[in-house]
Amino acid sequence: MAGPVVPSSPTTRFFGSPSAVYLSAAILRGAFLVYGLWQDANSPFKYTDIDYLVFTDASRFMNHGKSPYARETYRYTPVLAWLLLPTAWATGSSIWDVVCFSSGKVLFAVADLVAGWLLERLLTMGGGSLRPMDGTTARKFAAIWLLNPMVATISTRGSSEGLLGVLVTALLWAVMARKVTLAALLLGFGVHFKIYPFIYAPAIVWWMDQERMTSRGPGDTSSKSGMSFASRIGAFFTPARLKLTIISLATFLGFSLVMLSIYGGPFLVHTYLHHVSRIDHRHNFSPYNTQLYLTSAFPHLSALRIESVAFLPQLVLSCVLIPFVLAKKDLPTAMLAQTFAFVTFNKVCTSQYFLWYMVLLPLYLPHSSFLKDKKLGITALLLWVASQALWLQQGFQLEFLGQSTFVPGLWLASIGFFLVNCWILGIIIADVPFRSKS
C-alpha cells in the first residue's frame, strides 16, 4: 500500500513551473519599466541611465545617415546603435514615441530572460563542479539572476549588460557542449561588442585539452611525464584549440574591419583605443578613483599615467594566473573568478559591471562555501552591500550636495569596497581545488 502523498511547498510548485518563474521575471522588469517612465516624468532624479541617452542619441544620428560617433561619449560598437534604431523612430504620437524610445530597454530586459534560460540549460546539463540538476532546482539558482531586483533595475534603466549576459552564458554553454565553431563565433563577436570577454579565451583554450574534447571526460587524464618539451608544445596545439583561435580571431577582425570601412578612424578610437587612456572618476567604485580625478584635473603634474598602467595587475590575474590555475578544474567558476577579478581591479568600476559576474554566480553557488556555511554567505553579502552603500553615501554627498568627499571619505570607501571584493574573490578561488575536474 502506497504511503501518504506529501504535498509540495508553494516554493517548490513555483520553481517547478517554468512559466511561473519566467513570467514573474518579465512582470518584475515590466513593473520597473513603468515605474521608470513615471519617475522620469515626475522627479528631478531620472530613472533612465545616462548611457541609454547616449545609445539612443547615437541611433538617432544613424537614423539620419550620420555616424554614431557624432554623439560625444559614444564609446561602443555601431552594432549596439543599430540594434536600438527603433528608439529613433518618430511617429508623431506621444504614446508611440515613448514606446519606441523604450524599446531598447525592453530589448535589454528580454536579454535578461534569455540569459536566465541559458543558465537553466547550463545547470541542467552540468559540468565543472556541478552535477546535472532537475529543472526545479536549476530554476531556483537561475532565479538569482532572473528575479534579482538589481539586475532588473539596471536593464530597465537602459544598460546593455543583459546582452552581454546572453553572449557570455551562450559562450559557456557552447564550450561545455563541445560546439567549438559556435563558441568561437560567440567569443569573437563578444570581444567586438564589449572587449572584456577576451579574458575568457585563455581559460577556454586551456580547458580544451585533447582528452576532454574527444572523450567528454575530465581531461588531462593521460600522463605526459615521459614527453619531451617539444612534444608537449606540439600536443598543446589540438584541432579544437586551433579551430577556436582561428574562427574567433576571424570573427572579431571581420566585424571590426566592416565597421572600420564604414566609420573609419573614429570607430577604432572610440570603441577600442579610448579605453587605454580612459579617465572616468564619476560613479567609479575603483580604488583608482581619486587618482583618476587628480589626473584629470592636473594631467601635466602626473609623470606616471596611472590610467594606462592600471591594466597590468588586472590582466595578470584575470588572463594568466586564474585561468592557468582554475580552468581545467572548473571552467564556470574560473570564468566567474576571472570576471570578478577583472571588475574588482578595473580602473573604472560601476554598478553595471557587477552584472558581468553576477550572471555567472548561479553556476558557482550550488557547491560554494557561501552556501555550505550560511554564516559566511550572509557575512559576505552584508559586507558587499554595506561597503557599496558607504561609497554611495559619500558619492551622493559629492555629486548632489556639492561636498568635497574625495579624501578621506570617498577614497576610504573605495578601499573598503575593494578589500571586501578581494576577500570574496579569495574564497571563490580557494573553493576550486577541492572540486572534481570538469
Automatic annotation (TrEMBL):
Q: What is its main location?
A: endoplasmic reticulum
Give the enzyme class: transferase
Locations listed in the record: Endoplasmic reticulum membrane
Q: Which domain of life is it from?
A: Eukaryota
Provide the E.C. number(s) assigned to this enzyme: 2.4.1.-
Keyword Ribosomal protein annotated:
no
Gene Ontology terms: biological process? GPI anchor biosynthetic process
Recorded metabolic or biological pathway in which this protein acts: Glycolipid biosynthesis; glycosylphosphatidylinositol-anchor biosynthesis
Q: Which InterPro entries match?
A: PIG-M
Q: Which GO terms describe its molecular function?
A: alpha-1,4-mannosyltransferase activity; GPI mannosyltransferase activity
Q: Which GO terms describe its cellular component?
A: endoplasmic reticulum membrane; glycosylphosphatidylinositol-mannosyltransferase I complex
Keywords attached to this Swiss-Prot or TrEMBL record, sorted alphabetically, are: Endoplasmic reticulum, Glycosyltransferase, GPI-anchor biosynthesis, Membrane, Transferase, Transmembrane, Transmembrane helix
Q: Which Pfam families match?
A: Mannosyl_trans
Q: Where are the transmembrane segments?
A: 20-38, 76-96, 162-177, 184-208, 246-269, 309-327, 339-364, 376-394, 406-430
Q: How does it sit in the membrane?
A: Multi-pass membrane protein
Function, in words: Mannosyltransferase involved in glycosylphosphatidylinositol-anchor biosynthesis. Transfers the first alpha-1,4-mannose to GlcN-acyl-PI during GPI precursor assembly. Required for cell wall integrity.
* Similarity section: Belongs to the PIGM family.
What is the protein name stated in its UniProt record?
GPI mannosyltransferase 1
